[in-house]
Amino acid sequence: MNLTRWQSRSADAVSRAQVEFKRGGVAARLDMADVRNVAFETVDRFREPTSWKHKVNYTGFYWAATSGRHVWFESLYEMTALMRLDRDPMVLAISAQPMRIHRAVPRGQGDVQHHTPDFFVVALRGTRKSGQATHRDSQASACGFAVR
Predict the structure, then answer these.
(1) What is the DSSP string of 37-89?
(2) Which value, to the nearest 10 degrees, does the dihedral of the CA atoms of residues 114, 118, 124, 127 take?
(3) How far apart are CA 55 and CA 49, in angstroms?
(4) Span 110-120, pLDDT tens digits
(5) With 78 labelled, which of 14, 58, 61, 143 sits at a CA distance of 20 to 30 A?
């Protein structure tokens, strides 16, 4: 399992990116440059889980002692990543799917793209990163992306 950062295709796209999040049930959408001081570790999860009969994903809540609250997960990979992040002494806070990142695509290459990161992590050194839980490299550190 590895947590990987979502990468933008170009530096210019970052200047046109916006971040959407919810706090207390109220939605907000800001330019990427304006979210530096947003405490994403305390916002509501952006995406609500969907459910249907015979669903194969295992969803639930994990009590994270690091954050002092339940953190939602939607797969066993995410649960495993949460457990590893929660036990890492370098991690101060964890939140699940706290935002949706929108970025404009150059003309002729489609519409606006968006991405909802699995986690947002605050590390001991003050580093704040979002990341994805994947099954690649199950021996890798679950929080390597958060402390660089």
Answers:
(1) T--GGGSBPSS-----TT-----EEEEETTTTEEEEESSHHHHHHHHHHHH-T
(2) -10
(3) 12
(4) 666 888 888 88
(5) 14
**In terms of pTM, does the model score above 0.85?**
no
Within 8 A by CB and 6+ apart from 116, the residues are: 46, 47, 97, 99, 100, 101
When mean pLDDT is compared over 12-26, 92-106, 124-138, the highest value belongs to: 92-106
CA dihedral (62, 78, 10, 98) in degrees, to 10, reads -20
132 contacts 6 by C-beta, under 8 angstroms: yes
CA distance 105 to 13: 7
